[in-house]
Design a protein that fits this description.
The complex is a heterodimer. Chain A is an all-beta fold. Chain A has no helices and eleven strands. In chain A, strands 2, 4, 5, 6, 9, 10 and 11 form a seven-stranded mixed β-sheet that branches. A four-stranded antiparallel β-sheet of chain A has the order 1-3-8-7, with no helix packed on it. Chain A is globular. In chain B, strand 5 and strand 6 form a beta hairpin. In chain B, 0% of the residues lie in helices and 46% in strands. The termini of chain B are far apart. Classes of the chains: A mainly beta, B mainly beta. At the A-B interface, strand 4, strand 5, strand 9 and strand 10 of A face strand 3, strand 4 and strand 8 of B.
């Protein structure tokens, strides 16, 4: 069964450092998403991406965050200057199409720890 | 914010059917009902979705009331591996906007041996 692959599985970074989280969505999917989950809290939407541009973003997705699809397979989330409160699980997801008839496939996540 | 209401937790005996309720009384005509689950800290896993009719797949059945204001996810023979947080989500089916999935707190299902 096709999978969404995320790397690394765990990343530790110092406060103020830049970090890039990587995702390889399912190959025929057109819509891409990033979510995060702070320990013990809800899964929160960050951003959706389609046709090489951001479709929608949440209040969490401020100027410190950016997304990119640098080639035909990767989808990245960059945090420019990490803060302690950025520590969370970050999940990438993709879907074949937009619309209610299509579910998302999530990756297994990257655990980001900011120290 | 999530547009659904779910009980915070439920228990189910192994081998029995698990029936997880969800209230979505403000659902619109063009919104689907999705169910996902999250096992421990893994990524959410898609289970099933429906619009009006009841749906069944290899994982579960989804029963939607005629007025569409509530639904029930049924795991016919729960196993210990079904212990997870189950999320009921409503999401628009079509439109110009790319409405994302919005997760609530879900129901923590504990399957007990």
């Amino acid at each position: 069964e096709p999978e969404v692959t995320q790397t690394p599985s765990h990343q530790v970074t110092q406060m103020g450092q830049e970090v890039i989280l990587r995702c390889v969505p399912i190959s025929n999917h057109l819509y891409f998403y990033w979510y995060r989950q702070i320990l013990g809290q809800k899964v929160e939407f960050l951003v959706s991406f389609y046709n090489n541009e951001i479709s929608e973003k949440s209040e969490i997705f401020d100027d410190q965050f950016s997304v990119e699809r640098p080639d035909g397979s990767n989808f990245t989330l960059k945090i420019r200057s990490t803060k302690l409160e950025d520590s969370a699980m970050y999940f990438c997801a993709s879907s074949e199409r937009f619309g209610g008839g299509y579910g998302y496939t999530f990756g297994s996540g990257t655990r980001l720890t900011v120290v | 914010d999530a547009k659904t209401t779910q009980p915070p937790s439920m228990d189910c005996a192994e081998g029995r059917a698990a029936n997880l309720p969800c209230n979505h009384s403000t659902i619109s005509g063009n919104e689907y009902v999705y169910w996902y689950r999250q096992i421990h800290s893994q990524g959410p896993q898609y289970i099933i979705h429906g619009l009006k009719n009841n749906e069944t797949n290899e994982m579960a059945s989804l029963i939607i009331t005629e007025d569409r204001k509530s639904s029930t996810l049924i795991l016919p023979h729960a196993t210990l591996r079904d212990t997870a947080v189950y999320y009921c989500i409503v999401r628009v089916a079509t439109g110009s906007g790319n409405t994302p999935l919005v997760f609530g707190k879900g129901t923590r299902l504990s399957v007990i041996a």
